[in-house]
Sequence to fold (534 residues):
Amino acid sequence: MMIAYAERFVHESDAEARQDDGVSGLDLQLQGILDWSPAAAAAAARDFGGLRSAKPRAVVRPSGADDVARSVRAALRSPSLTVAARGNGHSINGQAMSDGGLVVDMRAAGAGHFQVVVGAGAGAGGAHYAVVAGGALWDDVLERCLSYGLAPRSYTDYLGLTVGGTLSNAGVSGQAFRHGPQTSNVTELEVVTGQGETLTCSRSDNSELFFAVLGGLGQFGIITKAKILLQPAPDMVRWIRVVYADFGEFTRDAESLVTRPDGDTFDYIEGFAFVNSDDPVNGWPTVPLEPGQRFDPSRLSPDAGSVLYCLELGLHHQRSNPPSDVDSVVGKLLGRLGFVEGLEFRRDVGYADFLLRVQNAERDAKATGLWDAPHPWLNLFVSRNDIAEFDRVVFKGILKDGVGGPMLVYPMVRSRWDKRTSVVLPESGEIFYLIALLRYTLPYPEGPSAKQLVSQNLEILKTCKENRIDYKLYLPYYQSQEEWKWHFGKQWGRFVERKARFDPMAVLAPGQKIFSRSSVPGKIASDGGPAGLH
Ligand code: ZME
Fold:
């Protein structure tokens, strides 16, 4: 019923649009579908954050990269249309929205181009890789690769995200300390630029475009294909959580683990802060890994504070090896750590189950309505030089009662991040921390209003600034170019040059609010386009 209606609507409106309001560019000549239905616009007007909404004029369901290019060229022909690529809609702040413009549903072409190449021999260092559509979901990529006994090397915590979406930001999880973010594990991209050209790029060909697009927040091109480095997949993960009361000891152990040689550390390293209480959402019960395990608070020293820390570790192993092998490796690695004795939890899980662990949380959150409520999340990178201060003023101060969800804090190593990408990191230090405040709260009035939580985020950032904490937003969002200039710092000039070169009319990703359509600094003046201001 719904589908029949939608299809009829698409056809009628599509025909109407051709003789439409003077925007001749809307004859896209797609192989796929131009969806004018109110339902499509409403869906593309919202995202996982649930904090803002901007309706596109129509939604493109591309059948492949050519349709993506046609969409960009149509926008270029019109005086004001913009184009946003939308993956699985997990932005928090409307980054994939296009107010009155086109949203390209990248998932529609996500099943195209799926190729796994096993042991390529001499080329590419003999590595294994997969070539996947930009709109493919990471959980699909994983599944396909596993059928060849292979797997990506670097992930996000949650795999219901598209490849193009995470590569446009960075893509981090517990493997990033070793392999770098996902942007460090891709060797080639196919990109539709803001000029409507489809180009293949890599470190050696069109390298400026390649590095621009990685972490480029969608500003330079739409990723339609990616060649992703793979590794042989292990079949099991020994999953471990150990608890600390002292932040200094927590960071000392975490930093030691992320800087040791590969064979002398874990394969996955994350951490989180939690509240020293029996609160089921923020406290002790969030630590044990399986039902039979219990968090025994009597193990804590009486002078433990109101916030505790947990290192989360994973060691890959093979089912065919005797369990005593992994026990002895784990025993040796844990033996050097200073966690609270007795507050240690272990569990063996299949590799895929481990990587898909957040999907369990998704199922629960959907059942309780927490998934569809607003998610005013805040993600930061904080220099190791200031992480103790951050702990003091933010975790032990503003957030001492938790955020109603995970508060991730774990270190990563700068040398695994390529300086040439568009990703922005803190200014100082070889080690920096990821901070992720992942609020899952019931919608108002059952929970706090989104407005209150957003203002707490602003308070955290203000406090960081006042205390001169060296931080950058991860998955950044700002309202003005002034703030973006601050965000990019010394890299602003390069970012603007890249924009002028690859999207001179600022057609792409308007939801980031970095540039305005037809008013790119230094370029647009000569185009004589209208200089739209926010
Ligand atoms: C760095 C980051 C992690 C951004 C989002 N996340 C997560 N999102 C949802 N659930 C999660 C999560 N990390 C752990 N669980």
Residues 2-18 form the longest helix (17 residues). The chain has 16 helices and 18 strands.
